[in-house]
Amino acid sequence: MVRELQVLEKAQVSPYRVMLFQLSEEVNKSELKSFKFFLNKQIPKCKLHDNSSLLDIFVEMEKRILLAEENLDPLKLICAEVNKSLLEKIEAYEKSSRGRRMSLEGGAESPVSFLDEESCFRMPEVCDSPREQDSGSQMSNKVYQMKNKPRGYCLIFNNNDFSKARKNVPKLHKMKDRKGTNYDEEALTETFKELHFEVIPYRDCTANEIHEVLRSYQSMDHKNKDCFICCILSHGDKGIIYGTDGKEAPIYELTSYFTGLKCPSLAGKPKVFFIQACQGDNYQKAVPVETDADEKDSFLDVDSSPKNYIPDEADFLLGMATVKNCVSYRDPTQGTWYIQSLCQNLRERCPKGDDVLHILTGVNHDVSSKDDRKNMGKQMPQPIFTLRKQLVFPPN
After folding, report:
1. 235, 263, 343, 350: which is the annotated catalytic residue?
2. What is the DSSP letter of 12?
3. Helical spans, DSSP H, in 322-375
4. pTM of the model
5. Is residue 136, in this structure, part of any structural domain at all?
6. Pfam families annotated for this entry (predicted)?
7. If you average pLDDT over each of 108-117, 118-127, 251-260, which comes out highest?
8. Is the pLDDT of residue 298 over 90?
9. What is the spatial distance between Cα 195 and Cα 191, in angstroms, rounded to a whole number?
10. Which of 8, 247, 293, 341 could bridge across to 207 with cysteines, CB 3.0–4.6 Å?
11. Are 222 and 129 in contact (CB under 8 A)?
């Protein structure tokens, strides 16, 4: 196999395979041992024995959807720890790969032909993954797979009662309960059930309980699922959401449970988070309603939270109710501006085949057109994403 890969002048190998081969040639025994250490929770020990080469490890990573031509993030994370020169080689490959794609989009034909499986260590054996390696339809390569029913889990953390926070955390002694939040839970439940997700609500969770629940879903097998959704309805501040006990849960930590390395069965599949919480206590300038922060007295309730919200890898989408430093609004008799608009737009536009990013643009328009007349405030939701394809939730 190695001999055949080295004779590149006799058979053109995909640049992706060449890059992996070059990485395998550069690691020493100590670095190879480090690779095995970082992967010992994702790959069985019997596959990481002393005689396993780095090429063997790449094969096992591809089998488990931890590695593919369009998903190099798990490999980059390991290389950053083991040897930064390896990371630089991957980044150089990505840069040249982007240049080749631009050339192809300009009308050029690809000259690359692929060696057979034996001569170019095996491709992933999971043929139904979202990252399809065959020559399927052009459209299927541009849209995340949504074929399984249920599509995946949709968790809803609905925090209403903050009496513990008021009692135990002095700076939060004025934090209000989140009246009207149950309208949001109902709307999310109805919407995502219609979209064929298995909806599981969790009510009045402490920060630690939120972590525990997410860790339990991190360890689950999502092999027969297409997507993962997590909705959090709570109070918040810059970069965090509050548990009902007033303790902080950093948003980055919550989303990072589902990276390719930590949750291999969701690698290459969209991980979607919708967070209804303020990102500060400022009012965007331009009912009785309320805001989801704790200082301001208002008819609108304010909920507050970015630095880094999502992991630096592909296939994440985070829908935030508002931009950094600003409040978001909740009507005690109807629910929040953001979640109610999100659900309405999903129910109306998913049956038409619209992708989620376009739908979120519509949500931005709807929410930004509303006014907090008391404080002359506005609200603008903020989507943050690293999606590689269109995310569409088909109704059937």
Report:
1. 235
2. -
3. 337-349, 356-368
4. 0.61
5. no
6. DED, Peptidase_C14
7. 251-260
8. no
9. 6
10. 247
11. no
Task: Kindly state whether residue 148 falls inside one of the protein's structural domains.
Answer: no
The answer for residues whose C-beta is within 8 angstroms of residue 20's C-beta and 6 or more apart is 55, 58
Task: Tell me how far apart the alpha carbons of residues 107 and 309 are, in angstroms, rounded to a whole number.
Answer: 37
Q: Which domain holds residue 275?
A: 153-385
Helix, strand, or coil (residue 329): strand
Q: What Cα–Cα distance (Å) separates residue 83 from each residue in 36, 77, 95?
A: 14, 10, 19
The lowest-confidence range among 7-16, 160-169, 315-324, 334-343 is: 7-16
What are the pLDDT digits (tens) for 154-190?
A: 999 999 999 999 999 999 999 999 999 999 999 999 9
Whether 235 is a known active-site residue: answer yes
Regarding whether 169 and 66 lie in a shared domain, the answer is no
pLDDT at residue number 81:
86
CATH number for the domain spanning 46: value is 1.10.533.10
Phi, psi of 209 (to 5 degrees): -65, -35
* 166 and 172 Cβ atoms separated by less than 8 Å: yes
Burial 116-131 (b: 16+ CB within 10 A, else e): eeebbbebbebeebbb
Contact between residue 3 and residue 77 where contact means Cβ atoms under 8 Å apart: no
User: Among the options 205, 263, 278, 350, which is catalytic?
Assistant: 278
Residue 358 annotated among the catalytic residues of the structure: no
pLDDT band for 328, please (50, 70, 90 cuts). Answer: low
Among candidates 211, 271, 275, 273, which has minimal Cα distance to 243?
A: 211
Q: Note the pLDDT of residue 376.
A: 46
Contact 197/150 with Cβ under 8 angstroms?
Answer: yes
Per this entry, what is the length of the chain? 396
